[in-house]
Design a protein that fits this description.
GO terms for molecular function: oxidoreductase activity, acting on the CH-OH group of donors, NAD or NADP as acceptor; quinone binding. This protein is of the alpha/beta class and about 250 residues long. The chain has eight helices and seven strands. It binds NADP nicotinamide-adenine-dinucleotide phosphate.
Length: about 250
C-alpha cells in the first residue's frame, strides 16, 4: 500500500488559494487529476496550470458553493469529463461581519458563513454522492479547531465547523461501506484568511504562545494529512475528525 493517488480524480473546493491550493498540488504530486474550484476564474486558471505542470489532468471550473443549483451542474460536468473519486470540502469563510459578541451578529452575517461553510459543503457532498459511491471514493471535510472547541466572538464560524464535524459522522454512517468520510481540523495556518492575525504583533504572539508547536502552520502541513486520508493508507478510517493543530486542542 502506498501514498499513490494515480488514476483518481479529486475535486477541491476553495482550491485556488491557501490550504485548498496546497491540497490541490499535494494531490497532483501524488498522481491524481485535480479540479480546484473557487469563484475567481483567474486564480483557478493559475492553479490548474500548476496542476498540469505536474503531468496530470485538470479542468477550469468556477463555483460559488453557496449556489446550490450551480454546484449540481458543476459536479456533473466534472464527473462526465474526468470522473470523481475524491472530494475535499475546503471552501470556507470567516468575514469580519460575522465576528463579535453574539448580540452584534446579524441573521445575514450568520447565514453568510453557514451558507458557504456548512450548506455549501453539504451541497457538494450531495452532488458527488453518485460518483463517489460508484468509485468507492473519499470525502474529506475541512473544519477547524473551531469545530472541536469554542472560540470567542466567532459564533457563526464555530457553529458551521461543529456542523461539519457532525456531518462527517452522519455521512460516514450513511455512505459506508462504499465511501469513506473524514474531517480535518486545522489550527492556525498562514493563509489569506489569517492575514489580519499574522500582521497584528500582539494577536500573533498570543496565538503562537497558545500553540505548543509555537507557530502558524504552512498550508502544506495540512495538505499532507489530506493526501494520507485520500489514500489507501487510510482505508480503515471513516467518520473521524483529525486535528492538525500544532497541539492546540491537546491542552
Ligand atoms: N487558515 C486557517 O488558519 C484555518 C484554520 C482552520 C480551518 N481553516 C479552514 O480551511 C479552509 C481554507 O481556509 P484558508 O485559510 O485556505 O482560506 P483562504 O486562504 O481565504 O482561501 C479560501 C478559498 O476558498 C475559496 N472560497 C471562498 N468562498 C467560496 C465560495 N463561496 N465558493 C467557492 N470557493 C470559495 C476562495 O476563493 P474565492 O474567494 O476566489 O472564491 C479560496 O480559494 C476553510 O474552510 C477554513 O475555515 C483555515
Amino acid at each position: 500500500m502506498e501514498l499513490d493517488l494515480s488514476g483518481r480524480t479529486a475535486v477541491v473546493t476553495g482550491g485556488s488559494r491557501g490550504i485548498g491550493r496546497a491540497i490541490t498540488l499535494g494531490f497532483a504530486d501524488a498522481g491524481a487529476n485535480v479540479v480546484p474550484l473557487s469563484r475567481t476564474e483567474s486564480d483557478v486558471e493559475a492553479v490548474v496550470g500548476e496542476v498540469r505542470e505536474r503531468g496530470v489532468d485538470s479542468r477550469v471550473e468556477t463555483l460559488d458553493v453557496a449556489d446550490t443549483d450551480a454546484v449540481e451542474a458543476c459536479f456533473d460536468r466534472i464527473d462526465d469529463n474526468l470522473g470523481i473519486d475524491v472530494v475535499v470540502n475546503n471552501a470556507g469563510i470567516n468575514p469580519a461581519s460575522a465576528l463579535g459578541d453574539p448580540e452584534d451578529v446579524s441573521d445575514e452575517g450568520f447565514e453568510l458563513v453557514t451558507d458557504v461553510n456548512l450548506d455549501g459543503a453539504f451541497a457538494c457532498a450531495r452532488a458527488a454522492e453518485s460518483p463517489l459511491k460508484a468509485s468507492g471514493g473519499v470525502l474529506i471535510n475541512v473544519a477547524s479547531v473551531g469545530g472541536l472547541v469554542g472560540l470567542p466572538r466567532q459564533h457563526p464560524y464555530v457553529a458551521s465547523k461543529h456542523g461539519l464535524v457532525g456531518l462527517t459522522k452522519s455521512l460516514a454512517l450513511d455512505w459506508a461501506p462504499n465511501v469513506r468520510v473524514n474531517c480535518l481540523a486545522p489550527g492556525y495556518v498562514a493563509t489569506d484568511l489569517t492575514t489580519g492575525l499574522q500582521e497584528n504583533d500582539d494577536l500573533r504572539a498570543s496565538i503562537e504562545r497558545r500553540t505548543p508547536l509555537d507557530r502558524f502552520a504552512d498550508p502544506e502541513e495540512i495538505a499532507g494529512p489530506a493526501v494520507f486520508l485520500a489514500s489507501d493508507l487510510a482505508s480503515y478510517a471513516t467518520g473521524e475528525t483529525f486535528a492538525v493543530d500544532g497541539g492546540w486542542t491537546a491542552r
